[in-house]
Specification:
Layout lengths: L1 H26 L2 H9 L16 H9 L7 H10 L5 H8 L4 H12 L11
Helix pairs in contact: 1-4, 2-3, 2-5
């Protein structure tokens, strides 16, 4: 029972910081920088694959000067919005991305989508 109350408190906390975390990530151009890694505008050969984790997102945060102490809150917010890995951040959390647009263009054309990571 006590653990359930802790879970509720954590969910309430994440919910309370979500709008500010999202504004902060927008201000950092986090989603655009992540999209540049997973779906480069210039050279598709530079495309990085999602490893089913947050490694690319962590590199973007690090390069943006975000303190590692803040990462747990940021990833808590992203996870709560359906971003369980780098590609899912762009598919489920970001309002728009080249990665998501390419996915749907391929769906419409009946093309096979390159798997972003194993299991997709």
């Amino acid at each position: 029972m006590f653990g359930h109350m802790e879970d509720d408190a954590a969910k309430d906390f994440i919910s309370s910081i979500t709008p500010d975390v999202m504004k902060y990530l927008d201000r950092l151009a986090f989603f655009q920088k992540l999209d540049d890694l997973l779906s480069p505008r210039e050279d598709p050969n530079l495309r990085r694959a999602c490893g089913g984790d947050y490694k690319l997102s962590e590199s973007v945060l690090l390069k943006s000067g975000v303190q590692q102490a803040d990462w747990a809150d940021i990833f808590g917010v992203l996870h709560s919005k359906g971003g369980c890995c780098d590609c899912e951040i762009l598919y489920n959390v970001s309002e728009s991305s080249r990665l998501k647009a390419t996915y749907w263009r391929n769906q419409a054309e009946g093309s096979q989508n390159p798997a972003s990571h194993s299991g997709e």
